[in-house]
Amino acid sequence: MSSIKKRDNGKWRARYRDHDGKEHARHFDRKIDAQDWLDGETVKVRTGTWVEPRAGRITFEEWFTAWSSIQVWERGTYLAAEQAVKSTPFYRKRLDKISANDVQAWVKSMTKPNDRRKKGLEPSTIRTRHNYVHMAFMAAKKAGKIGVIPSADVTLPRLGRAGSSMLIPTPEQVGKVIGAADPYFSTFIELCAFAGLRLGEAAGLQVPDIDFLGRTITVNRQVQGATNSDVQVKAPKYGSQRTIHVSEKLIERISAHIARFGIWEDERGQWLLVNGGNLFQRGSAGHYWREARSQVGMDEYTLHDLRHFFASGLIASGCDVVTVQHALGHSTPSITLNTYSHLWPNADDKTRTAGTALMDSVFPSADSVRTGAGSAL
Predict the structure, then answer these.
(1) What is the pTM of this model?
(2) What is the domain range of residue 82?
(3) Scanning 35, 88, 323, 372, which has the fewest C-beta atoms within 10 Å of its C-beta?
(4) pLDDT at 161
């Protein structure tokens, strides 16, 4: 219901009611201005884009703090969302003043180097950060804080083909970085390279998780956090709890590590790897890794690239998708394929190999073919 009436003082009073029946009114000197305002507000009510005039006056920071506090998130998810939101230049801007151009400019800035990084972020990282920010804006729209979602129609960088930006160290490089690492931390590197453990999984490994006779390692937990003060020991991410069949050589090297350095025990269990009485976390493990890689010219490689090294070795040895999926702890085979499909032989390779095998079965060697051809002349 809406109306315009002229008041005794000559002003024009335009009024309407929102979906909750609450009346909103404004006064104008001219009737045409009152009608324009009223038409705009009633259209918003009908199309679902109307918001309480005072609702969007809080900052994006204030909204994210309130909204995230009621989400059922793991701590790692919260920290990732917080990092994404705090990376925006409009973090402290009023919610209703943030435009699509603001969001697009932020996305563009992530593709460029800055004072803290030598190159732009990967497209997948940019898309992940945008997704967290977009979730916050969608929730604000649903809560009636904003009428339009400014993150909805921005242009995001295209994802490259699988493996186009993947770095896989060579066996020689892996050997060199293990040799350059602190002797204690070298075992951490070996767990990532030869068992495919994630950083948090290697940090969370306890001695009972290792079957020395059966030559298996079971992933039962992970360490989350970037500093000693925010470390949390959690169950593995969904689908990642697994038992990995590992090389006897890796078991021998773990045994040698225990014989040399011992184990560290607290009320939570017997830990294989610790850093001065604290569990390894992203900060401390990253520190030791950067020290080692810098000595052998591998500055562009991350600890996670050792996991790619492990996966590439499995695939090169003929392991199928499901086997690699289980070894890496991916929740579905599609994740494994999306990540590593470029490493598996394609149909052309298989056809060529099959044809070669058929010819080899008929012509055992090139010499016999030449011999046969010569005798026929």
Answers:
(1) 0.69
(2) 57-142
(3) 372
(4) 61
